[in-house]
Write a structure and sequence with these properties.
A hairpin with a 3-residue loop joins β4 (about 50-55) and β5. With about 260 residues, this protein is an alpha+beta fold. It has helices spanning about 5-20, 115, 130-140, 150-155, 165-175, 185-200; strands at about 20, 25-30, 40-50, 50-55, 60-65, 70-75, 85-90, 95-100, 105-110, 235-240, 240-245. The chain has two domains: about 5-115, N-terminal domain of MutM-like DNA repair proteins; about 130-245, Orthogonal Bundle (Helicase, Ruva Protein, domain 3), CATH 1.10.8. The strands form three sheets. A five-stranded antiparallel β-sheet has the order 1-3-4-5-9. It has a four-stranded antiparallel β-sheet with strand order 2-7-8-6, covered by helices on one side. A two-stranded antiparallel ribbon has the order 10-11.
Amino acid sequence: MPEGDTVYATAHRLTEALGGVTLTFGELRHPRLSTVDLAGRVFDRAVSVGKHLFLRFDEGLSLHCHLRLDGSWRVYERRPPINHRVRAILASGSRYAVGTLLHDMALLPTADEQKLVAHLGPDLLDPDWSDDSLKEAARRLTADPDRELGQALLDQTLMAGVGNVYKSELCFLLGVSPWAPVSAVDAEKTVLLARKLLLFNALRPVRNTTGSSRRDLWVYAQNRRNCPRCGGRIRLEGQDARVTYYCPRCQPRPTAS
């Protein structure tokens, strides 16, 4: 599933391509929206909230969508091939933005966007992030101190934007097992580190959590490589129907009490 940085970059790319222009073509290929024609509307900009995406148009109209596992938006400089997976086509002149396999599509007043994301915790890439955002995310994270950290990091109602890649990378950088309880880490430090990683990667073409050009990721999808700290083999295991990568030496599982 695309993580917060991917959705943020998608919003930036759409805004850069079509922001402020009048659409010459605007089609939504969704049963509830198939009669909507967005041609003639001004596309203002796109914004991300966690893993949710809102495309804003003039007269206070927004299109909401979620990328989930397989959705994407791509920008083209000429009309691209259109197939059955396409769910949205926006164009101005020769420039096209095409949404493929989009989920949860809905048109709504821009003023009502918050209703669709009110359940989320603080957005780690919120441009208005503040100390209050940090404290609220930390409060939510520690509300269940016995919960497995790997589970909690993926819970978008605690803080929005972390996916499976950052879950694994955060646990490694914090030096704790994904199966350790939330109480094993400093909550504010964890939130700040998550935000730092997402911000660093928000507009990067290749995600990097190490700061090195020789190795992009510490443990995620690195199970054929050795741990950069101890030299042991990175392992891959399931955790609540999701995979997690970790070093069993540097991040030993908690022992039963």
